[in-house]
Design a protein that fits this description.
The protein has 277 residues and is mainly α. Helix content is 66%, strand content 3%. A 3-stranded antiparallel beta sheet has the order 2-1-3. Helix 2 packs antiparallel against helix 3, helix 4 packs antiparallel against helix 5 and helix 7 packs antiparallel against helix 8. The longest helix has 51 residues.
Length: 277
């Protein structure tokens, strides 16, 4: 049943009351206000997600998860719902599912989202993905080392057998053996390249923030910047492209989907790049 107009108006007022209490860090009072709003209009997703934020502040992750699931059921595009559910899942050890929700939240961020929100979600997602990469890479490195050791042992045993069968050609055999061992080492070094941190390519980093792109946008001049970085530049009264010095307005910024996809591909292959300084 649709809420009456009076109920909807009162629920919105209760939401505003809850927001005010939240700003004053009166989380219990905020929860009460949002709960009353939910009672009046239970099909409004933002009331559930706002209450979830309060539960997070109080460390009540079970209720965070419950409220977020309700918010997402009502609105599949609930940014706060996916983000906070991701945090709740990570908190109870379901890292893989939590990462999916955090990624969903980041993917849903629109052009009007604040830079702080983008950065908050990115940092949490990056932290979790780095931890996963660290665990997986350590396990993979250990397996590679074990396999390398086994291969070296087998190759050395073969060299010993060959040496007995090639009396008089010891120098030639030793040289061949050394070349094979070096080749083996090169193969395993190549296999371990993705496990070794190096540098992020310049074209994947913002010229303002000097960090890997989270939300890249391109200017009419063809220069790509991190959205928050270029907006901070423009909002400080400098209405021009920092590189080309041509006039520039926020409305002229366009998402650079190609660079965003390139960043995703790079991070998928080089999880060490998620590490935040």
């Amino acid at each position: 049943m649709r809420p009456t107009s009076n109920a909807a108006v009162l629920a919105e007022q209760l939401k505003e009351d809850g927001n005010l209490c939240f700003k004053k860090q009166r989380f219990g009072a905020a929860i009460d206000a949002y709960t009353e709003a939910i009672t009046l209009c239970p099909n409004v997703a933002v009331y559930w997600s706002n209450r979830a934020v309060c539960h997070r502040k109080r460390g009540d992750w079970k209720r965070v998860e419950e409220d977020c699931r309700r918010a997402i059921a009502l609105d599949h595009h609930s940014l706060k719902g996916h983000y906070l559910l991701g945090l709740a899942l990570v908190h109870r050890g379901e890292n893989a599912e939590g990462i999916k929700k955090l990624q969903r939240a980041l993917d849903q961020i629109g052009v009007h989202a604040s830079g702080n929100m983008v950065e908050e979600i990115w940092q949490e997602l990056a932290r979790q993905k780095y931890l996963c990469w660290e665990y997986e890479s350590t396990h993979r490195f250990w397996k590679l080392q074990c396999l390398k050791q086994a291969c070296e042992t087998a190759l050395k045993e073969k060299h010993l057998r060959d040496a007995f069968q090639k009396e008089g050609f010891i120098d030639e055999t030793a040289h061949s053996d050394e070349m094979q061992l070096q080749a083996l080492g090169q193969v395993f070094a190549k296999a371990a390249e993705d496990l070794t941190p190096s540098e992020v390519p310049d074209y994947l980093c913002c010229k303002i923030t000097l960090e890997i792109f989270r939300d890249p946008v391109i200017t009419p001049s063809g220069i790509t910047y991190e959205r928050s970085g270029i907006l901070n530049h423009l909002n400080s009264g400098r209405h021009f492209d920092p590189v080309t010095r041509t006039p520039l307005l926020p409305s002229q910024l366009v998402p650079n989907l190609a660079i965003k996809e390139a960043v995703k591909d790079f991070l998928d292959k080089h999880g060490w790049a998620y590490k935040m300084d």
